[in-house]
Design brief:
A two-stranded antiparallel ribbon has the order 1-2. Helices cover 55% and strands 9% of the residues. It is mainly α and 88 residues long. It starts with 8 loop residues before the first helix and ends in a 5-residue tail after the last strand. A hairpin with a 2-residue loop joins β1 and β2. The chain has 4 helices and 2 strands. It has one domain.
């Protein structure tokens, strides 16, 4: 029986950010898995932790990955930060 791939959102974000900082030695297959995990799980975690898209950009997350994850520009309404996501 093949092992299951289970990862929680915080781990997915941390692993992908670590990969972006230190990509050497990571296979293409592993890099693709890290990217996919980030895309699937990061938005929910970012919303819960109030992490802005600009913070991910500052850490080197590419625009296409942010867009695929549904993490887009934040904006302010009456001085309060609002994170805009696709579909809302």
């Amino acid at each position: 029986m093949a092992p299951h791939h289970v990862v929680v959102a915080e781990e997915a974000v941390g692993r992908y950010l670590t990969f972006l900082e230190q990509p050497a030695g990571v296979s293409d297959e592993a890099a693709a898995r890290l990217r996919l995990d980030f895309i699937v799980l990061a938005r929910e975690w970012a919303e819960a932790e109030w992490i802005a898209a600009s913070a991910f950009r500052a850490l080197g997350v590419p625009e296409d990955v942010l867009a695929a994850a549904g993490i887009v520009e934040e904006r302010r309404i009456e001085g309060r930060r609002v994170i805009s996501v696709r579909g809302f």
